[in-house]
Amino acid sequence: MAFTLGIHESVDLIFPPTVLRDALDPDDGADAADSDDGSEVRVVGSAAELEACDALVTFAYEDAFLSAGLSWIHSIQAGVDRFPFDELESRGIRLTNSTGIHGDAIGETVLGYMIQFARRLHRYRDRGRDGEWKHPEWDEPFTLSGESLCVVGLGTLGRGIAARADACGMEVVGVRRTPTPVDHVREVYTPGEIEAAVADARFVAVATPLTEETRGLIGADELAAMPESAYLLNVSRGGVVDETALLAELENDRLAGAALDVFETEPLPRDSPFWGFEDVIVTPHAAAATRDYYRRIADIVRENRRRAVAGESLVNQVI
């Protein structure tokens, strides 16, 4: 059965569309790569090009997807909050995502944030630009061993964070809807117990998907429950954290700092106050970035292409 899979040009924000096309059909270097069964993979962008496809792999969402006759859309990100579920479902378009592939990358990024704050590396980097040789105050640096971490969201991302924190000798607690035991996590709380979960945490890592239930999950009350020595680390979605409340806490020195990979508005505007804090690390929604990203996407898409052709259920299906 011939099956045309489109690679939307928007994935260029993460990796060149051609590398994913070639990973799915490595024997062909042309703009459209044909496989032995008559299927093909092509890079697409225009509405006319979309209409020639049976399925689409994309970073962005466009309304043109709804009328293109697609049977399946794959998001190269785990988060799919930008996709209109009701409209897709009403048109019989299945949606899959890339959950399950970012645990190591996100885990290492969050570990990097914590090491920077503990060892003051971010401060040295900033001062180095000015050629400033300056030791920290004697009581500023610390080691991660024995420090506490609360991971909000214990899916693939949260478990990746917890495993690496545990390996560094940290005391790890977590928050998830079902308080069942999780490897590398000493105690699991429910969302209604977040204030208790963060009360003793030196670091709070937010790694939960953005849903109606999690929007604004970390607000003024939750931030106020954190110790003044705590750092907030957000690698989920900007909407999970109340940015106004977080800014107020930072401006009033009620928190030690934050590492933020995601924001309500992206790219983060140049005039955002978040840029101006010495102890706020800003990264450009890149916590999951790795040179192997496209290979991991290809593994999911290759299997789902086989399933789609065979009329089987898809892996990582959201709707």
Could you say which overall geometry the principal axes of the C-alpha atoms support? Answer: elongated
Counted beta strands: 13
Strand order across the biggest sheet? Answer: 9-8-7-10-11-12-13
Low-pLDDT ranges: none
Tally of structural domains: 2
Q: What's the average pLDDT?
A: 95
Order of helices and strands: EHEEHEEHEHHEHEEHEHEHEEH
According to CATH, the homologous superfamily of the largest domain is NAD(P)-binding Rossmann-like Domain
CATH-defined topology of the largest domain: Rossmann fold
Counting H and I runs of at least 4 residues, what is the number of helices?
A: 10
User: How widely separated are the two ends?
Assistant: 24 Å
State the major sheet. Answer: 7 strands, parallel
Radius of gyration: 22 Å
Keywords: NAD, Oxidoreductase
Domain D-isomer specific 2-hydroxyacid dehydrogenase NAD-binding: 111-287
Organism: Halorubrum aquaticum
Protein name: D-2-hydroxyacid dehydrogenase (NADP+)
Word description of this protein:
It contains 10 helices and 13 strands. The mean pLDDT is 95. With 319 residues, it is an alpha/beta fold. The two termini are 24 Å apart. The chain has helices spanning 17-24, 47-50, 85-90, 103-119, 121-128, 156-167, 194-198, 220-225, 243-251, 293-310; strands spanning 4-8, 32-34, 40-44, 55-58, 72-75, 94-96, 148-152, 171-175, 187-189, 203-206, 231-234, 257-260, 280-282. The longest helix has 18 residues, at 293-310. The chain has a 7-stranded parallel β-sheet. A 6-stranded mixed β-sheet has the order 2-3-1-4-5-6. The radius of gyration is 22 Å and the shape is elongated. Strand 11 (231-234), helix 9 and strand 12 form a beta-alpha-beta unit.
